[in-house]
Amino acid sequence: MDTKQIDLNELTTAQLEAMLAEKKKAEKVAKIAARKEYENQRDELIEQLVARAKVLNDQMRDFKQYAIDKLEDFRITANDYGDIRKNSKGGFSLRHNLTGEMVSLDRNSVPEYDERAASAEELLKEFLEDKVKKRDLADYRTLMALMERNKQGDLTPSRIALLLKVKDNYDDPRWAKAMELFEESFRIREISYSVSFFRKDKMQKDQAIVLTFASIPVTFFRDEVITKVEENGA
Fold this sequence. Notes:
- By secondary structure, the chain is of the alpha+beta class.
- Among the domains are: about 80 residues; about 80 residues, no CATH class.
- The chain is built from 6 helices and 4 strands, in the order H-E-E-H-H-H-H-E-E-H.
- It has a 4-stranded antiparallel β-sheet.
- A hairpin with a 6-residue loop joins strand 1 and strand 2.
- The longest helix is centred in the N-terminal third of the chain and has 68 residues.
- The chain is elongated, with a radius of gyration of 36 Å.
């Protein structure tokens, strides 16, 4: 097809400005269309991935609940046959007799004290200031140190346990009531449950069956591209 050649020198300034404006308008329209196409592709990709992620999330949640329920149901039987350690804090592991496969239930918990511990502190500090500080400064400092709170502002269970070991050392009502409140206010708060699965590898070592999305090994597309570029350049 023949294209008509335009001699720009023959055009007036107004004509040139009109042509430039038309070109800018066409470029803007094309840019908007390209942007819209990109956004459509982007949104479609996100919708597809999020939809699949939601399906997997539902499956993972259901499986986690199923696994925890089955293991909790089996806990008494496992305990009767000595499969749960006596010093277990709630979690336990079960291993297959032949394959060596293992399932582990972990309970994440936090020891803490409720509001009664604050009342115990007040009573104990009052008693120590009134009866112990002048008579035995070393004991006073030791007992006060056991009530020091950590950086998070919480009492330290191991220190309070040491305090309770000497609960019979004084017969003052304030001391006795403080010890009682410390014992009553202590509790274990469950934070979360987790279940882990393992199989034996060729070296007969436990190999975790990874269910954490970020930890699952995959082939990284960008690595493939970089490798191919390096091979082509060699």
